[in-house]
Amino acid sequence: MQRTKVHFVCGGKYHDFDFARLELLKLLAEDEGFRVSVAPDYRDTDLIRNANALVTYTCEVIPTEEQQDALADYLNAGRRWFALHSTNSRLKYIKGKGWDAPRDAPRFMEMLGSQFMAHPPIQPYMVSPCVTDDPLVAGIEPFEADDELYLCEFHGERRDLMTTEFSGKAEGFIHDDWTGYGSVPVMYLHPWGRGEVLYLNLGHARGKYDMLPIMEEYPQVERGSWKQPGFYELLRRGMRWMVGEVH
After folding, report:
1. Which CATH number does the domain housing residue 217 bear?
2. Which of 21, 15, 10, 41 is nearest to 209 (CA)?
3. CB of 51 closer than 8 Å to CB of 79
4. Is the pLDDT score of 247 beyond 70?
5. Is residue 247 part of a domain?
6. Does residue 11 lie within any of the structural domains?
7. 36: Cβ contacts below 8 Å, ≥ 6 apart
8. Do 60 and 89 meet the contact criterion of CB atoms below 8 Å apart?
9. pLDDT of 229-244, one tens digit each?
10. Please, what is the average pLDDT of the chain?
11. For the whole model, what pTM was predicted?
């Protein structure tokens, strides 16, 4: 059995990273060849450069220029990065206006292929494969996601794999008017350098204490797409993809 060095970055703000970290580690543990290192951010640049595979689930974790160099080196070595949910988020609250998405990490967002700009209130929406010839989504049935729907600004080439539809308002965000937006990419492939990024929008999770210091206790526990078997199948396929078992 081949040993595969997987580096897993999981941490940040406004999400239940304890829950997501455990769930993702359980999935990674299904492959006996995976040897996993875990970090809350991108500070371990040697681990990034020397990894065979990279998976991230973060929010408001922006790598420094030196750390972005490590990510660029990782991708330019022809390797793959599986980026989940709010990895592409950069947030700033402006009193009296709402949440902004500053464009102050352009190289990082270009690597990912997108930057989060806003999301409407959490509500169920249908996600469906938009291609039939890619093993990442072949045979996946449409399913209802009760999740944050990320409305993004996109960068560079991408191949959409799963989409949904949206038109309306994202209240509370400065970029709030998405009327007539139409098809929203939920999962896509994005080449960068000699490597490639697989981004999956789904995966929101929030517990009682994840909005500190904004509020003392969040009124409900949110588990989003983690309640859907189809989401777990996408995660498993993404993990096989990042080590080249799914092409």
Report:
1. 3.40.50.880
2. 15
3. yes
4. no
5. no
6. yes
7. 6, 7, 8, 25, 28, 29
8. yes
9. 999 999 999 999 999 8
10. 95
11. 0.96
Residue type, 227: K
- For the chain, count helices (H), then strands (E): 5, 13
190 within 8 A of 197, measured Cβ to Cβ: yes
What pLDDT, on the 0 to 100 scale, is given for residue 1?
Answer: 56
As a whole number of angstroms, the distance between CA 176 and CA 117 comes to 9
Overall average pLDDT of the 96-118 stretch: 97
Residues β-bridged to residue 168: 178
Residue 231: strand, helix, or coil: helix
Decide if 97 is inside a domain: yes
Q: How many domains does the chain have?
A: 1
Write out pLDDT tens, residues 194-220: 999 999 999 999 988 888 888 888 888
Per the structure block, which two tokens stand in for 235? 């995660």
In the predicted model, what is the mean pLDDT of residues 58-71? 98
Q: Walk across the sheet containing 159-169 and list its strands.
A: 34-39, 4-12, 53-59, 80-84, 195-200, 177-192, 159-169, 123-129, 143-147
* Close Cβ partners of 71 (under 8 Å, ≥ 6 residues apart): 42, 48, 54, 63, 81, 108, 111
In angstroms, the CA 79 to CA 5 distance is: 12
The backbone region for 246, taken as left when phi is positive above 0, alpha when psi lies in -120 to 50, beta otherwise, is beta
Domain residues for the domain of 13 are 4-241
